[in-house]
Amino acid sequence: MPAARPDTAPTIAPSPAGEARPASPKLDLALLAVSIGGISFSAPLISATAAPALAIAFWRNVMSVGVLGPYALLRHRAELRAIGRRPLLLAMAAGALLAVHFALWMPSLRMTSVASATALVTTTPLWTILLMRLFGTRAPRLVWLGTGVAFAGVLVLTGVDLSLSSRALLGDALALGAGLAASGYMLLGAEVRRTVSTTAYTLVCYATTSVVLLGVCLVAGAPMSGWPAGVWWQIALLMVAAQLLGHSLSNRVVRTLGPSITSTAILLETPGAALIAALWLGQWPPVAAYPAVVLILLGLVLVARGGRAR
After folding, report:
1. How many domains does the chain fold into?
2. Does residue 3 fall inside a structural domain?
3. Residue-range definition of the domain harbouring residue 132
4. 184 Cβ neighbours under 8 A, 6+ residues apart
5. What DSSP state is assigned to residue 268?
6. Successive 10-residue mean pLDDT values, the chain, 310 residues
7. Is the terminal CB of the chain with fewer CB neighbours within 10 Å at N or C?
8. How many angstroms separate the CA atoms of 241 and 243, rounded?
């Protein structure tokens, strides 16, 4: 895969088939803000839903495919048939990484606090920077300083959770792994979106994610049904907020804003999800965790500033 560029100023590339050219950078930034708002509801909703985490991950993706599928087949059928082998394989690989992300992060919310799991999964920009460096993209010093500060916060936070329980520490490890998987998903998605429309890419990606998660659920023996109607409504709300408004809109803007800015904006999910969890679920993180979360957010802000300077 060619090295993805950490674009810091929106660039307009030739529009993929079937998709209009972006109206303006301001529109993409507004869509990104809506995306982060939707994603912020994800962790509290998962914690509040009385169903196995893996089953929730599977059904939210299946519902998304059910919503997007008819529209994609109606408006993008020709594009879907004409997708080349390389972008198709990359889109499927992105879907597999998204499945890994869900399979790790959603169970982590049952092991550690919403604040800890969210802060750790939003280290996606740090993993993105490291992966892009492997492909030859050099980052400014401020970006590496921010990376160091954020990882210091990760060490502090995992130390706090270790003092609570080994289960909380395992949840932290799963959340970190989920952040790493998300960075690969973001980079692959940015590459595919150079030539493929959001709708076509999203359908292939989510369909692949659903198939992989189905296999994971079957292997793990996770129950797939048998819950009250309220649980299904919660999963549907999760699909709309986090999947359609969250991930789909981030897929929409990643082509113009770039993977670095798009993934860095995820840092806003941490305070949003923690506030929602505290007010809705009464889930307040331990006092010692606050400095660690602040360090992580500070590091991510430095990464963002370094990216803009570049």
Report:
1. 1
2. no
3. 25-309
4. 94, 97, 127, 131
5. G
6. 32 43 70 86 88 93 91 91 93 96 92 85 81 77 83 81 82 92 91 89 94 96 92 91 78 73 71 81 78 82 68
7. N
8. 6
Q: Does residue 192 contact residue 94 with C-beta atoms inside 8 Å?
A: yes
- Let me know: does 7 contact 261? Beta carbons within 8 Å: yes
DSSP states along 167-200 = HHHHHHHHHHHHHHHHHHHHHHHHHHTTTS-HHH
178 belongs to a structural domain: yes
The answer to whether position 189 is within a domain reads yes
What is the rounded radius of gyration, in angstroms, for the C-alpha atoms of the chain?
18
Kindly state the tokens that stand for 236. 């549907």
Residue 118: both structure tokens together: 């969210």
Question: Cβ(286)–Cβ(156) under 8 Å?
Answer: no
What is the SS3 assignment for 285?
coil
Residues 132, 134, 135, 141, CA torsion sign:
positive
Q: What is the pTM of this model?
A: 0.78
**25: number of Cβ within 10 Å:** 15
Q: How far, in Å, CA of 250 to CA of 247, rounded?
A: 5
Residue 20 located in a structural domain? no
Handedness of CA 56, 97, 175, 276 (dihedral sign): negative
The backbone torsions φ and ψ at residue 40, rounded to the nearest 5 degrees and listed phi first, read -60, -25
